[in-house]
Amino acid sequence: MLLLLFSCKENSSNNSETSNGDVVTKEKNKEFYIEDDFFFDQKVDKKLGENFIVKSFGISEGKKEDDFKIVVILSDFATESSVSKYSFGMQIFLPKEEREKLNLKKEYIDWNFNPKMYSDGKVNYIYLDRRTTIRRIDSIRCYSYDRDNYKGTIGNFWIRDIDL
Length: 164
Fold this sequence. Notes:
The chain is mostly beta strands. Helix content is 7%, strand content 54%.
């Protein structure tokens, strides 16, 4: 089982970003490091677009009680310019008790965002911080679609049986 987490430790110095070719890297004021504290991770190896291949998907706890970080590890040859062509969506399928808690009529909720690729110089990834009271997920359908010219989903993969 692959256990990776990218955490970000803020420093009080300038909070700027620079671009190094196609890969966005954080300046010394942001320190990224790998930890062994994903409470959920799954190997994926699925293509979601040109040079947009997902190697693994993980979830870790955030800084506050209901905060979670979803981390998507990308292929070594992913570039910011290729990733920025796409939007990333997740259909979160919930069990009946979670839907009732949220007063939902349909079986899933949608979380969509425009991903930004980060790199620590060794691993490329995107991440999404999310606050939620959901504690049980039946499955997640992750997918991509063209950000500027929607013609349906391009690629997708499924994640199953997640306890938050």
